[in-house]
Amino acid sequence: MSENPTKSSAPANNQNVLIVIVIAMLGVIALMMFFNMQKGNSGSPVSSSSDQERLLALRKSIEAKELELKAQGIAIPADTSSINELSQRISKDAMSLRDNVENIQQALSSKESALMKAKADLAALKRTFDNTNNEAAKMRSQLIALEGQQANISILREEVESLKLQIAQRDKQIEELNKRPNSDTVDQFRASLNETMLTNEQLNKRIAELEAQAANALSSTEAESLRAQINELIPENEQLRLELQKLRADNDYDSLYAKSAEELRPEAARLYADLEKLEGLTPDQLEAAYMKISMEHNAHMIRSVRFKTGSSDVSWNVLSSIKDTITTAKKDSFFLVVGYASKTGNADNNKILSAKRSVTIASIVKHLKGGTGTRAVYLGQTDRFATNQPLENQICEIWELRK
């Protein structure tokens, strides 16, 4: 009596499996018909001979399964609405998938256009920056030449005045000597006077030549105008340099910034790990720790750059000092720029700002050095450099790892 439920459930299970197989095959046919319709809409033939053969083979297989079900006494329901619904869902999903692919392609095309425009803007800004520098250099050269000429004129005028005083003194001496009967002394003074007057004449001639050159070159008013133009160009030139610096840093951000030590070279990751351990040390202990790092890793802190609150800009003087440092470093050295933030303010905002600062310095190092041996990291908020002066902790350190 207990075996009857098992025997009755076996045919039911077989029936369900066969019905599922038939539905799956009908779904495959529907998919093939859908893709054939898509090919027809795109201008290609509706169906190839190989597709027709596969459809015929599937239909024969379905008919064979139907005969097998009928032989077992299993009737397939006449209502095929579930199969139609399945086919419609499959068609709808396929069309939705195609729309998604088209949307993604459009988004990629838009991003590529924006990237090309940004690169073009960067190139145009660099050309403007270079042209401005060239014009400023020409004006400085003209001003230096004019100032040199004016200085020479002033010196010669002072010599002329000095000679006039000497002539006056000699005249006085001659008058006194004329009262005496000694003609030799008078002749001696007269010869000296003639020599002095000749020298005075030559100096006056030279002054006239220099004044003529100065008149042909630039007047004092024009010189002052040039000096004023240069002074007006200096802030604009500095602003252009900062904008170019920011564009370069933004462009280099993804390739230079390491979000964690795992993205660094092994030797740089070891340096990062040792620097993390130095929080809470006294100045003397910190100096000793830096010396130990230099000996163990052949890593040297070659430049420290401080930043104003809320700013990631690098001034012209700081840029020059970084250039002097990098140009004297070894060509095969690796540079790690470590950014710190003070413990004042929001921690998340400090991390973002310090990352920008370290990438800005790393971008400058990269363009001075060339190659790929430069990375930037953010170590965290700190007071290791000064416990009572937050500005002293808003810094980036440039570490050189020598081979």
From TrEMBL:
Annotated InterPro entries: OmpA-like (IPR006665), OmpA-like_sf (IPR036737)
Domain OmpA-like: 294-403
UniProt keywords, alphabetically: Coiled coil, Membrane, Transmembrane, Transmembrane helix
Coiled coil, from the record: 94-250
Keyword Ribosomal protein belongs to the record: no
Keyword Membrane annotated: yes
Name of the molecule in the record: OmpA-like domain-containing protein
Lineage: Bacteria, Pseudomonadati, Verrucomicrobiota, Verrucomicrobiia, Verrucomicrobiales
